[in-house]
Amino acid sequence: MTAEENKAIMCRFWGVWEEGNIEQLDELLAPDYINHNLAAPDLPQGPEGVKEVVSMFRSGMPDLKVVIEDMVAEGDEVVTRYALEGTHRGELFGAAPTGKRLSIKSITVERVSDGKIVEHWRVTDELDMMRQLGVFEAPGDQPSKHGGVI
User: What per-residue confidence (pLDDT) applies to 39?
Assistant: First the structure.
């Protein structure tokens, strides 16, 4: 497959995150898909683990949008720099809903083979994500009148 075809597969993958049609992951991901993300070692391999993650984000941020900032493909790999954006309306990573707008920035590398995503690596700014979720205050955060940070 060409780099452009692999990028098109990745665009379809990110569309699943926005639309919530997780059954499409069965056709986009190889049955033996490997998630190399150490932050989620207990997820099942293959599409089922990704379905759990997408469902969690869609539940926590029902208006979820994927903002693709860059996508570069070479050979069988596609690198995407993106943000997951939405309103925190449901529990997310154990944090109760805050009603705040979130923008969770990440970079992923996916390997595509025979039209399916077969491997995944991800780096997320988890420190900023936890700050946005209100798990803790970062140095320099200003307390608001309502007890949170702004």
Answer: 67
Span 26-76, pLDDT tens digits: 999 999 999 988 666 677 888 999 999 999 999 999 999 999 999 999 999
Q: Identify whether 148 is part of a domain.
A: no
Tokens of 108: 């992923």
Nearest to 85 by CA among 99, 97, 102: 102
Strand extents, DSSP E, the chain: 29-35, 65-74, 77-87, 101-113, 116-124
- Decide if 71 is inside a domain: yes
Contact 1, 112 (CB under 8 A): yes
Question: What's the whole-model pTM score?
Answer: 0.85
Domain region containing 105: 3-132
Taking the C-alpha atoms of residue 112 and residue 132, their distance in angstroms, rounded to an integer, is 32
Total domain count, the chain:
1
